[in-house]
């Protein structure tokens, strides 16, 4: 039983004759092959347009201009109107879903923050400062007492 996908074995002379014929056809078609002529023409045009290839030491991109103080101010001006979410956190607690469902109007939750302790000021959920509550014209406000450094931010995350 023979597989329909297999090629029946040929004699070595038939292979040699076929390869020789293919090589002769390729050599004869080289002069009249429109694809080969088009590819050669395209390579010549691309070489003329591109010019010499850049060396390994040369830069492919022009260096960026050094920003002037007015350019830096203009770049900063672009981001001034981007809104951010500021929130003040009194404290945190963990409760179970059962305790959550038992909450009603007037329920009191104990937080881990102490009275008089500075509150966390968050920008887009990132701690950036701490402050204290103030009342101005019957409205609550927050007075910033400390700006958090990046190293302090990491320590605060571990709470």
TrEMBL record:
Residues 46-68 are annotated as: Disordered. It is found in: Cell membrane; Bacterial flagellum basal body. GO terms for molecular function: cytoskeletal motor activity. Residues 78-148 form the Flagellar motor switch protein FliN-like C-terminal domain. InterPro entries: FliN, FliN-like_C, FliN/MopA/SpaO, FliN_T3SS_HrcQb, SpoA-like_sf. Keywords: Bacterial flagellum, Cell membrane, Cell projection, Chemotaxis, Cilium, Flagellar rotation, Flagellum, Membrane. Pfam families: FliMN_C. GO terms for biological process: bacterial-type flagellum-dependent cell motility; chemotaxis. NCBIfam families: fliN. FliN is one of three proteins (FliG, FliN, FliM) that form the rotor-mounted switch complex (C ring), located at the base of the basal body. This complex interacts with the CheY and CheZ chemotaxis proteins, in addition to contacting components of the motor that determine the direction of flagellar rotation. This is Flagellar motor switch protein FliN. It comes from Pseudomonas extremaustralis.
